[in-house]
Design brief:
Blueprint lengths: L1 E5 L2 H12 L10 E4 L3 H14 L15 E4 L1 H9 L13 H12 L23 H18 L1 H8 L16 H14 L4 H13 L10 E7 L7 H8 L4 E7 L6 H7 L23 H5 L2 H15 L4 E3 L12 H11 L24 H17 L12 E2 L3 H12 L20 E2 L8 E2 L1
Parallel strand pairs: 1-5, 1-6, 2-3, 2-4, 4-5
Antiparallel strand pairs: 7-9, 8-9
Helix pairs in contact: 1-2, 4-5, 4-7, 8-9, 10-12, 14-15
Length: 436
């Protein structure tokens, strides 16, 4: 198993290209690359195509082909499939689990609903029962990924939460409904099966239907469950390369000192997490909790003898002159900001726009993007623009009205083009919504 860390994606892509330059024994064997989002997949494909097989360094005339593009959940599915016949579908997949969920909700005998499931009887006018079942199935699937210890306790009829404490009364219906779904499926759930499967992999079981080299690229966060345990088990028989994007790299020893691994194998509690004291920049303390939790998982792996290679860290870069550059520099160095930046009226690297109403926000966003793209000497393109939106369902109609529909693909833009094409997308199944 190989771990890589960098503060930006381009050095990681260069390191991955270096890994791919070592050809596999069979030239027809595909490379397997899992990414967190479609946007990262497209960007990485272009980066690799510009590097692999190029006529000269930086020529950009290479090619990237025979790559199996996947998501991290595909690795978990492939691992869980080793103890299942190839012609038998997994009933715990979301699209199949939704039907036992609906059966558990729509019980012919209303009196048979146990206490705590009465909340499912209420239905808003015009709401879809299938949509409710689908949301619950998606919730259970996320529990399987992020809270496997809790689900294994539910399978033993212990109604506890992710910390091992008894469930609150308003949440106990989830465990009881999951138990009813488990009875209908009549097959161990993924968290129940996973420990035995991992033991088989550690013992050298070669039943995985995967290439000999696997790559997980561009992740900023890792599930707090057994994801790295799964990757290490797969690494018993295959090369596994994990490329992590970290705003700053935290040393493993202070992290483990501030939040050591529980000796009983239970999960770490956020209430006992003292790693915030290791983040000297206030944004790393307030916004960086999930990053620190992922760094703790990497620290556990490093403590077991797997080093992390820092990519693109050739010494401290020169101090940038812009406000955005200084902010990025301080975050990467984990250093508190200093009030030494001179006021520069020409520095517009960070801008704030105050607007009245959602419609006006979108209009100002459109004008700001048009100015950036039309600025003389600017090499920005639409692929460089990411708009973070906390309420995509609310703003999507306004964006379409203000920006217009996406223009048809053309090789040469019209000379009078005055609009920017923005399409709604999501960076990953468990990520925050975004507009690209």
């Amino acid at each position: 198993m190989h771990l890589y860390s960098a503060a930006s994606a381009r050095p990681l892509a260069a390191a991955l290209a270096g890994v791919f330059e070592a050809a596999l024994p069979d030239p027809l064997t595909p490379e397997w690359v899992a990414v967190p989002s479609d946007g990262m997949r497209r960007w990485l494909s272009l980066e690799l195509a510009g590097r692999l097989g190029a006529s000269a360094p930086g020529a950009g005339d290479g090619i990237a082909s025979n790559i199996v593009r996947a998501y991290p959940g595909d690795l978990r599915s492939a691992v869980l499939a080793i103890d299942r016949p190839t012609d038998q579908a997994d009933p715990w997949r979301i699209e199949r689990m939704v039907w036992p969920v609906l059966e558990a909700i729509v019980d012919a005998d209303a009196a048979a609903l146990p206490t705590g499931l009465k909340v499912l009887e209420s239905q808003r006018e015009g709401a879809s029962l299938y949509a409710k079942g689908r949301r619950i199935a998606d919730l259970f699937d996320r529990y399987h990924l992020y809270r496997p210890h809790m689900v294994r306790q539910w399978a033993r009829d212990r109604l506890v939460d992710g910390t091992g404490r008894a469930l609150d009364e308003h949440s106990v219906w989830q465990a009881r409904l999951w138990r009813r779904v488990r009875e209908r499926i009549d097959e161990p759930s993924p968290p129940e099966r996973l420990p035995a499967v991992l033991r088989r992999l550690h013992a050298g079981d070669q039943l995985l239907d995967l290439p000999p080299r696997l790559v997980l690229f561009g992740f900023t966060l890792l599930p707090a469950g057994a994801f790295l345990d799964l990757a290490r088990a797969v690494a018993a028989s295959r090369e596994v390369h994990v490329f992590m994007l970290e705003p700053t790299h935290l040393d493993p020893e202070p992290l483990l000192g501030a939040n050591p691994r529980p000796e009983d194998g239970s999960v770490r509690l956020r209430s006992s997490d003292a790693t915030a004291s290791l983040a000297h920049h206030p944004l790393l303390r307030s916004w960086g909790r999930l990053h620190r939790e992922t760094a703790l998982q990497l620290a556990d792996v490093q403590a077991d003898g797997v080093p992390v290679r820092l990519v693109g860290d050739a010494g401290p870069p020169p101090l940038p002159s812009t406000l955005l550059g200084r902010l990025q520099h301080d975050l990467r160095a984990n250093r508190p900001p200093a009030a030494t930046l001179a006021d520069d009226p020409g520095d517009d690297s960070v801008q704030f726009h105050a607007c009245f109403g959602a419609t006006r926000q979108v209009e100002v966003l459109r004008d700001a993007l048009l100015h950036l793209l039309a600025r003389p000497g600017s090499d920005l393109t639409e692929d460089d623009v990411v708009v973070l939106c906390p309420a995509l369902d609310r703003f999507a109609p306004l964006i379409e009205a203000a920006f217009g529909r996406s223009a048809p693909a053309t090789t040469t833009p019209p000379p009078d083009a005055t609009s920017v094409s923005v399409t709604a997308s999501s960076p990953g199944r468990h990520g925050a919504p975004a507009l690209r």
